[in-house]
Design goal:
The protein has 14 helices and 18 strands. By secondary structure, the chain is α+β, with helices and mostly antiparallel strands. Helix 1 (about 25-35) crosses helix 8 (about 365-380), helix 10 (about 410-420) packs across helix 13 (about 445-460) and helix 13 (about 445-460) packs antiparallel against helix 14. The protein is globular. The structure holds flavin-adenine dinucleotide (FAD). Flavin-adenine dinucleotide binds near residues 25 and 361. It comes from Bythopirellula goksoeyrii.
Length: about 475
């Protein structure tokens, strides 16, 4: 499979143009291509550079939504969690969670004990593992440093751990394999309807060159940007969530741990030799392109963990990396951010134009299936049935050593693969989305030097480009991403 990047020599007419290469757009492109529609997908940045590389990386039904009585939402996501485990086992490890309970907390042991049994049943009765109730003695064996005051016990239940950006990239590889034209660094500028099609003005972001394509159907899958896109009729409420990465030797948890903070919950999620801590949920009205982890966000998360594990006493010096993402939630002006529904919305706002918003990583495949069903109705043509729930995302040999939950080994072969077969054109594309090396390794700057050398050879960079890529990468701080350097 060869991949186009900067110079999209795509033919001009498509059945479907998907705007946005996050998880939602990628899922739609894969489904549309598999059903026989001529499909193009563009993203103004790198694929997954938006929310879809900034999540908690969980495949989950949502134990919190169960407590809110949203059974339908939990059932839907729990089933999809199992589907992803089937179609992409390399990106869906069973992950046990220990949820300690305390006297006089809203999360009582008996309620949670019943809740986790219902949770197992909602996954079709065969969750990724069987839930159980743990005694106080057993939790302290598993989590020796845990605060014991008011501790009554714990429940242990299962969800899945994934790698959000890799799920996007492997979904796109599958879409491309089924014939979709996939291009990063191309921005949707505007469109107008003409003879039953949308004539779309697109701009290659490095060269600023404009070009046009026509599509019978256009899908706005731009996540947090979706209410700003021309023709969009969607209204969002954006909330920010941050994550911190610390060394697992500082917080040696065998399973994921849940921390209750009122009605909210935070997690410590084991990730190889690291632990991911998160997340927050606060209203956001700053620029969408650069959400970052503020010192207050970091302090809040560290305080929650330190309250639960007082002897651990994590400080900002323990933080290896951070990321922050924006939840594109279907608007609800009222209520706390954590209470806003995570439901998705698929809306044909104009003939042949859909706004697809909300939902979560876990439910992306279902969102795609429902969207392509609507496209089929609109086009009034018989399409092949949806097969995304049963067709593996990749052949097993295609994922070995280049795609997984933990970062791959740092080596030139992997970088060659990302440049030649996964659309990577900038240093940050490899360091962040393709590999997570940026987040995982303390010495990521040394790794970046080597990767820049390798990418320079593969992509024929001049020494100026190599220097600019490195400088740009150096300028990235834990607080987010700068804009992509222009060539
Ligand atoms: C903190 C946090 C934690 C989360 N944790 C989980 C979790 O553990 N499990 C789970 O299931 N879900 C989780 N979610 C939810 C999930 O991450 C999101 O629902 C999902 O990633 C949204 O994907 P998307 O494709 O809609 O948006 P995005 O990933 O943001 O993709 C939109 C894309 O559109 C592109 N774009 C924008 N404008 C244009 C334009 N004009 N032209 C071309 N392209 C454009 C952007 O560059 C971007 O790549 C979490 C979300 C957050 C914020």
């Amino acid at each position: 499979m060869s991949t186009a990047s900067h110079d999209p020599s795509v033919p001009g007419k498509f059945d479907v143009l998907v705007i946005g290469g996050g998880i939602v757009g990628s899922g739609i492109a894969r489904d549309a291509a598999m059903r026989g529609l001529t499909t193009a997908l563009i993203d103004k940045q790198d694929f997954a550079a938006g929310t879809s590389s900034r999540s908690s990386r969980l495949l989950h039904g949502g134990i919190r939504y169960l407590a809110q009585g949203k059974i339908g939402l939990v059932r839907e996501a729990s089933r999809e969690k199992m589907v992803i485990h089937q179609i992409a086992p390399h990106l869906a490890d069973p992950l046990p969670f220990i949820f300690p309970t305390h006297k006089r907390s809203t999360w009582s042991l008996w309620k949670l004990g019943i809740g986790v049994k219902i949770y197992d049943l909602l996954s079709g009765g065969r969750n990724l593992g069987k839930s159980s109730i743990l005694t106080r003695k057993r939790i302290l064996e598993l989590l020796p440093g845990l605060q014991t005051s008011k501790l009554t016990g714990a429940v242990r239940y299962f969800d899945g751990l994934t790698n959000d950006a890799r799920l996007v990239l492997d979904t796109l590889r599958s879409a491309s394999h089924h014939g979709a034209s996939i291009t990063n660094y191309v921005r949707f500028v505007d469109a107008h309807p003409e003879n039953g099609r949308w004539r779309c003005d697109l701009q290659n972001t490095p060269s600023h060159k404009h070009y046009e394509i026509c599509a019978k159907c256009v899908i706005n899958a731009t996540g947090p940007w979706s209410h700003d896109l021309p023709h969009s009729e969607t209204t969002l409420r954006l909330t920010k969530g941050v994550h911190l990465v610390v060394d697992r030797s500082r917080l040696p948890v065998p399973d994921a741990v849940v921390f209750a903070e009122g009605s909210r919950i935070l997690f410590a999620i084991p990730w190889g030799e690291r632990v991911i801590l998160g997340t927050t949920d606060t209203d956001y009205d700053e620029p969408i392109d650069f959400p970052h982890c503020d010192p207050e966000d970091q302090k809040y998360v560290l305080d929650v963990v330190n309250d639960a594990f007082p002897a651990v006493a994590l400080t900002e010096n323990d933080v290896i990396s951070t990321w922050a993402g924006l939840r594109p939630l279907v608007a609800d002006k009222h209520g706390k951010p954590s209470d806003i529904s995570r439901r998705h919305e698929i809306k044909m706002s104009h003939p042949g134009w859909w706004d697809v918003t909300g939902g979560k990583l876990t439910t992306y495949r279902l969102m795609a299936e429902e969207t392509v069903d609507e496209i089929a109705d609109y086009l009034n043509i018989p399409l092949k049935p949806c097969r995304t729930a049963t067709t593996p995302l990749l052949e097993q040999r295609d994922s070995v050593q280049v795609s997984g939950i933990e970062p791959p080994e740092v080596c030139q072969e992997a970088v060659e693969h990302y440049c030649q077969r996964e659309w990577a054109v900038h240093l940050e594309d490899v360091m962040i989305r393709r590999t997570s090396w940026r987040y995982y390794h303390c010495e990521h700057m040394d790794i970046a030097e080597n990767v820049a050398k390798w990418m320079g050879r593969i992509l024929d960079w001049s020494s100026e480009i190599t220097t600019r890529e490195l400088e740009h990468y150096k300028s990235l701080t834990d607080s987010g991403f700068a804009s992509t350097p222009s060539s």
